[in-house]
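Write out this protein's structure.
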Amino acid sequence: MTDVFTHVPLGVDRSWGHAMLRGFRMRCPACGQGSMFARILKVADSCPHCHEELHHHRADDAPPYFTIFIVGHIVIPLVLVIEKIWHPNMLWFVGATAIVTLALTAALMPRVKGAVVAMQWALRMHGFDYAARGNPAAGALDKDPAPPA
């Protein structure tokens, strides 16, 4: 089957594993060279290197959810082990735990968001399919329809 607009085979799959790894590195899922982010958590409209459109993403609440899940699975076992072995001063322990939790969250959040956006790109979700086809109405289905008059 070929694309009606650009005659590009639609059956060509994008590797979601490679795309997510590139996204985790905060790089463009298509080329792996350009930066995915314009600011710390703001996804660029397009890749500065290959000009792949990235504005179609709908990451929403998934990156914070996954980040909390990952950080919790790292911090909670550490807290339990440290408390069991060393019995540290509670004030120091709570402060250190808060610092470690915030540092891990700040380090992982953009990377997890990059991986989520890259997965959406690889699976052609939320308008990435229309961008791949070269459809001039790319993303038209992402917008809410106009209310009836």
